[in-house]
Amino acid sequence: MTDAFHQKLHHIAPLGLSGDTAQTTGMRRVEAISGKTVGSKDLWMGETHVAASTASDNHHHGESETAIYVVRGNPVFVFLDPETDTERRIETKPGDYVFVPPWVPHREENPDPGNEAVVVIARTTQEAIVVNLPSLRPSAESSLRPSLRPSLGKD
Q1: Domains and CATH numbers, the chain
Q2: Is residue 143 classed as helix, strand or coil in its secondary structure?
Q3: Would you state the torsion angle of the CA atoms of residues 20, 44, 150, 57, taken in this order, to the nearest 10 degrees?
């Protein structure tokens, strides 16, 4: 049967994770659940690994909401606080959750000199959207929401 109630489940073992996904310098993403791997339409899920004493580049995930679950290590999530216009640091530990709204520039840091940080991430888009940025500040056109980008002379 192939009706909506009789579809197969998909199991992805650790050896089945794929590094063939969008990347940011300073971290390694592997995907488990995506359109490519299981045919999902509205969900992307995988892991991010940040090596010891490493910080990722600044980036955002476009229209995608991102939920993060800390599995191992004590990663720090850095973003620009809109109320104070200063960098804010969220220090985490295993078992913590972090929510990253769409379009918010941020970076991950792993201050631990001896251990990798590992998080599980889930996004509300079928594929991983990653827009790497030179800064957390919205000076780069690529960091702006499409509706806020200048028209570039087009009407």
Answers
A1: 24-133 (2.60.120.10)
A2: helix
A3: -60
